[in-house]
Design goal:
The chain is mostly helical and 98 residues long. The protein is built from 5 helices and 2 strands. It is globular.
Length: 98
C-alpha cells in the first residue's frame, strides 16, 4: 500500500475517509480490526482504510458502508474473542506450510 507513493487524488480521498472514522466506529460498534486501532491516525490504520477505499473503487460512501458492515459482523460473530482461545488438539499442527 506504499503510502508515500499515493497521488494527490488518493491522498485527498483517504483524508476524507479518515474524517468519517468516528462515525464508522460508532456505527460498527468497535474501533479496531485485525489488531489495528482505526481511531489512531497512523500508517497502519491508513493502510486498512485504504484497502477498504480501493476495494470500493475509491467510492467513500461504499467503503464506509463496507467497513461498518465488516465491523458489525465481527462484533456479532464474536470473531475477535476467538483470538485468545486455544485450539482443540485435532487442529494443532495445521498452521504451517511445509
Amino acid at each position: 500500500c506504499y503510502l508515500h507513493l499515493l497521488g494527490p487524488a488518493e491522498t485527498a480521498l483517504l483524508t476524507k475517509f479518515r474524517a468519517e472514522v468516528p462515525a464508522i466506529v460508532a456505527a460498527g460498534g468497535r474501533s479496531s480490526i485485525w489488531g489495528v486501532e482505526l481511531t489512531c491516525e497512523d500508517d497502519r490504520s491508513d493502510i486498512v482504510l485504504l484497502k477498504f477505499l480501493r476495494a470500493a473503487d475509491l467510492d467513500i460512501a461504499l467503503a464506509n458502508e463496507r467497513l461498518v458492515s465488516t465491523l458489525r459482523f465481527r462484533v456479532e460473530q464474536g470473531l475477535d474473542e476467538l483470538r485468545g482461545q486455544a485450539l482443540e488438539d485435532y487442529f494443532q499442527g495445521h498452521d504451517f506450510v511445509q
